[in-house]
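Entry type: protein chain
Record version: 2
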Amino acid sequence: MESSPSLSGGQVFVTSFDHKIYSFDAATGKKQWEFPTGAEVGASVAVSDGKVFIGSADKRFYALEAATGKRLWEFQAGDAVHSSPAVSGGTVFFGSNDKKVYALEAATGKKLWEFETGGEVTSSPAVSGNTLFVGSYDNKIYALDIATGSKLWEYKTDDMIINSPIVWNNRLYLTTYAGQVLCFAGSGS
């Protein structure tokens, strides 16, 4: 397992290389449900409005009912999904090994937009205001408009970005695979 557990509403959600997503009672540790995918799941889930969102190496992105693990919808990406999703304003965002960042309607799985980078996207997106930040194996960090997916700006780093950017105190922080640490002031809108 490469992911971190997620905690929401008294449940702990865990993903696994055994191709499954698990829910446990946070107080007792008792397994509540498991959901099988077609391949390993190495990212962390996002939980919002009673739904669990997660992608898999089976090239699918899933929305599950948090209480039961029932599949609500699934989306077919172009390649494996190793990016942990971000959810904001009824939209779920994630990257894929097909060099794309996707925005889906969280309620239905309908694709709202996609943005193509020059490399795989295993970095998890970060949202600040109306801006989505995501790194790529093409050595770039991208700032995208969350409503349209239009590129606002990009910055080339010294190496690929596999770690997830974070936004804190109106600043964007990220590290590259080679260990370069970057900080951008005034992130988001």
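Comment: The chain has a mean pLDDT of 92.
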